[in-house]
Amino acid sequence: MQQPRGAAGGRSCALFPVLSILVVQGVHIVLPLEISADAHVRGYVGEKIKLKCTFKSSSDVTDKLTIDWTYRPPSSSRTESIFHYQSFQYPTTAGTFRDRISWAGNVYKGDASISISNPTLKDNGTFSCAVKNPPDVYHNIPLTELTVTERGFGTMLSSVALLSILVFVPSAVVVILLLVRMGRKAMGVKKRSRSGYKKSSIEVSDDTDQEDNSDCVARLCVRCAECLDSDYEDAY
After folding, report:
1. pTM for the whole thing?
2. b (16+ CB within 10 A) / e for 13-51
């Protein structure tokens, strides 16, 4: 029996508020395949860069799983395929990334990362990682913005300064403490000699021991200085 139009209209009107509530509240839809990647990656010219990409699938990994990495230059809508995986690795053999893309992941651990060798300033742009693991083929597509820059003199200088602090400061503190101690002993000897104080045989023996110790400390200072010079030469 055909329902009256009014009843059908009333039913559709009743469903509309429910749909509106779902849209307004923002229902989170869980995809069977989720992919994660770094939004921003910074690298330096000539130094190998790793582009991380991980995925979670509701299905077991099989030989049907595929991974595709693409690249889009800045201020351009043109995309370029740079890597494909399906049981084997297929890095691009053409374009600017020829012979510079290598596999750095493990599909059985949910890792679909790749690496770029000898990066240049021309490699700046947007990279995307797409994974399909049938029957899980619907997923998000994360984007990674790569910024390649020259490693400046300031960065190199900071590394050298840190090395200098770790090597020279402790040695310098030890030398200063030894010099202060030697100076105090020397001042004590001068004061006693000026006052005309006559030393006993025991004190003379003690002074002889102190002189021997002073000689040992002096030799130690010389040795420390030699160590500092050798550390300085090794650092450079």
Report:
1. 0.55
2. eeeeeeeeeeeeeeeeeeeebbbebbeebebeeeeebeb
Tokens 């009107």 locate to 13
Which residues make beta-bridge pairs with 128?
Answer: 70, 143
> Are 29 and 133 a contacting pair, CB within 8 Å?
no
| 57 within 8 A of 74, measured Cβ to Cβ | no
Contact in structure between 82 and 70 (CB atoms under 8 Å): yes
* Three-class secondary structure of residue 101 per DSSP: strand
Tokens at 206, concatenated: 């003690």
pLDDT tens digits, 71-95: 999 988 899 999 999 999 999 999 9
The two tokens of residue 213 are: 């110790």
CB 25 within 8 A of CB 101: no
Tens digit of pLDDT for each residue in 96-143?
999 999 999 999 999 999 999 999 999 999 999 999 999 998 888 899
Q: Are 235 and 163 a contacting pair, CB within 8 Å?
A: yes
DSSP annotation of 133 reads B
Size of the chain in residues: 236
Distance between CA atoms of residues 150 and 142, nearest Å:
26
Q: What whole-number distance in Å separates Cα of residue 82 and Cα of residue 93?
A: 8
